Amino acid sequence: MSENGALPRLGKVLTVDTMNPNVKKVDYAVRGPIVQRAVQIEKELKEGVKKPFEEVIKANIGDAHAMGQQPITFFRQVMALCTYPQLLDDNKFPEDTKSRARRILQSCGGNSIGAYTTSQGIDCVRHDVANYIQRRDGGIPSDPDNIYLTTGASDGIVTILKLLTAGEGRTRTGVMISIPQYPLYSASIAELGAVQVNYYLNEEKCWSLDISELQRSLQAAREHCIPRVLCIINPGNPTGQVQSRQCIEDVIKFAAKENLFLMADEVYQDNVYAEGCEFHSFKKVLFEMGPEYSSKVELASFHSTSKCYMGECGFRGGYMEVINMDPEVKAQLTKLVSVRLCPPAPGQALMDLVVNSPQPGEPSYQTFIKERTAILSALAEKAKLTEEILNTVPGISCNPVQGAMYSFPCIALPERAINAAKAKGQAPDMFYCMKLLEETGICLVPGSGFGQREGTYHFRMTILPPTDKLKILLNKLKEFHQKFTQQYS
Amino acid sequence: MSENGALPRLGKVLTVDTMNPNVKKVDYAVRGPIVQRAVQIEKELKEGVKKPFEEVIKANIGDAHAMGQQPITFFRQVMALCTYPQLLDDNKFPEDTKSRARRILQSCGGNSIGAYTTSQGIDCVRHDVANYIQRRDGGIPSDPDNIYLTTGASDGIVTILKLLTAGEGRTRTGVMISIPQYPLYSASIAELGAVQVNYYLNEEKCWSLDISELQRSLQAAREHCIPRVLCIINPGNPTGQVQSRQCIEDVIKFAAKENLFLMADEVYQDNVYAEGCEFHSFKKVLFEMGPEYSSKVELASFHSTSKCYMGECGFRGGYMEVINMDPEVKAQLTKLVSVRLCPPAPGQALMDLVVNSPQPGEPSYQTFIKERTAILSALAEKAKLTEEILNTVPGISCNPVQGAMYSFPCIALPERAINAAKAKGQAPDMFYCMKLLEETGICLVPGSGFGQREGTYHFRMTILPPTDKLKILLNKLKEFHQKFTQQYS
After folding, report:
1. More confident position, A305 or B6
2. Contact A13/B228, CB-based, under 8 Å?
3. Do B342 and A316 touch (CB under 8 A)?
4. How much is the mean pLDDT over chain A?
5. What is the mean pLDDT of the segment spanning B250-273?
6. Of A355, A379, A404, which residue constitutes the final position of a domain?
7. Are the C-beta atoms of A335 and B28 separated by less than 8 Å?
8. Collapsing DSSP states into helix, strand and coil, what is residue A157?
9. Is some CB atom of chain A closer than 8 A to the CB atom of B211?
10. Does B301 touch chain A (CB under 8 A)?
11. Do B306 and B405 sit in the same domain of this protein?
């Protein structure tokens, strides 16, 4: 109080001028202004405002269930049993769902999924993850002590980036990320105050990764920071490419030679559609390259319950495997994750079911396989459809969607549209996507949110809407693009 | 590769010397070395190693279900329905559980709890939280736009601290925390590189908070940083005190006068046991103080599904309410939380049930009230029991456990024990707790993990074990303390 008892007239403690400057630099396009406007438009539609469309189609985010994909029955049955164990007496649930639930509950404190788990994650889940990786990678061993369960893959990625961020000014940690990239990376780098080091994917060669470009990017970055991490997303987000085994080997050699920590974001490992393409994990390739590499290169790889055929984004389940991590650093990692107590137990349980799915002979096997196959075939069909229809549009050119859940086509924008965007202070592809949203209800994310070569424009579109809706969407998009081009030509 | 093709012999990229220096400074006693040793001992017992006890009793962490507390039936029924909606056709579930589940699912993308939610949290849940706060606070309005759902309270607390951390050197943000404190605070402050500013609670007056001590602490801190935040935990962790309305009013006046952002950690709001004690939320007191304060003081308050009578720690559910936050900062907050996509949807749904529990006349009401009352009465009884038995031990003095879930007694340690600890490089109370664990299997957390006045020693013990086990634990502890005192006298 001042002398006369009145409160002093001070401004707010927390303002944009006094807040964490790194947070201000954070950008996350996938949930940016376009999406906020889409939510507004949905409200307006509900309130009866007339629009040239009846619903907003959100093709901005890899959210399968929101697009109508049904959950896998086996997963949800076991989760219901874990949640309300009284159902274990119910004969409507197959025996294998019950035995899975019992096993998970036995690993929980007080047999309750409501207890904290160990910070690294439930023991039996980490064992199951290790077994899964070993099977997936043709027998190359995986150690449960190297597995950390996470709150979705994002959580794991941020945690490893956090460990790696150090130095000041020219000694600050540089993080090499692909352009286009998934904006979790740029956002986390900004938040941590690390240095973003861009390497460009080769759009002409189906978004492939050229080692010469890695070399160029590294060289340039060494002028102003210390690049210490190389991040790879495979299958690619937002670009949908699937890396060849050779490319992965070359990347590992590059990381070894240049002393870079490798981060492999492999959350789309089951989402491979194109003929001749196959998923190779960085872990497997690393170990196939022999001890010269497998005993040396530091690698963290990430997986999640949110993508593939599961699409269980809401559960925030995930894991990471760390390879060749210095044991003292690992102890620091374990300490760091303990501050947040534990990842959500339901997400951990779900991750367990993903890596330990029904086996031939078990009662749930047939249904499980049927459901999984149906989802993955539909995605493959929609990947093809998207590429085909988009490439019929003059001014749009779309690489094959080899994997993941997105197309990232290049769009030709007329000079006048670019100028109109600049006049509004918008990126040209933001201007395009905003207009698309207002006129058709289709919600996409502009390429500028992911990064792209100067002077090129793109958008990211998920392939997740149901096939009939996807066709409507693609045709509306085609029509819009033609109209837009005409209008600004 | 070097000229001859061999890889250069470089050390690891990531070592304790090159890692994030702030992460190294992080400490989290609740899951520290004592707990790691307890886990080891449990393994040894399983392997048949002979010990002077048969089981480890973990009284180190507020993990109710792990200590045998049963989940609330209503919560788990609705969660099972949300997880596996086919059960909505099952007539074993009461109608009110079904209507809650339907309402939650209707707010989820694709009616699935597996879809991402909005980053701030499911709309209808935020509305229910706002209604709950309004009821709790005697009608003082709460705006759903000020509610952010979180991954447990910890997540919310770290997020707000992150926003507040800025400056360098002497302009670095200072965060005022009570000593003893819950180590999430010190850990997050270290990780963010903010400055920890200690104010001491008054053990002689039942761990109360003296404004003169806040003033002293603030004055001293202003010499080397800019204190901008004042954190309060009420009911107290680890100290179990419940703040009086007058004290809260004084704290708010202090924050207003000194221009401090208030963070009120109120996760134990239903855990009040002592006669004459009552929970007052900071929000309510702030608004009762009139517009001079209620229009000015910036406040964030936190709640969780993990404590109170729920004990659903594994779900990682929680919310925060922000009051008087600058609208531009709020936009930054919304952007920041969007990078992690969303809090776990099951935790959000559970939070909804906590704030929107069965009402009189609904089929689940009777059972719900019976279960809740039983848990809270048992906790009240155990709070009393703990205080009483501990105070019969010469050399242990324990304040009343007015609320929360912990006792934090002061222990007198003989000079020789202190020297023996020093010789081992251990804090004296760590030495004591480690010995207690090895000899009795009881796992407590040493007071040094929470902070305490120089030259005093404490431990934190939860009151959560079942009454019969708690009695055994307390008597074993008594016996140990007497033996220990004798041995080192």
Report:
1. A305
2. yes
3. yes
4. 94
5. 97
6. A355
7. yes
8. helix
9. no
10. no
11. no
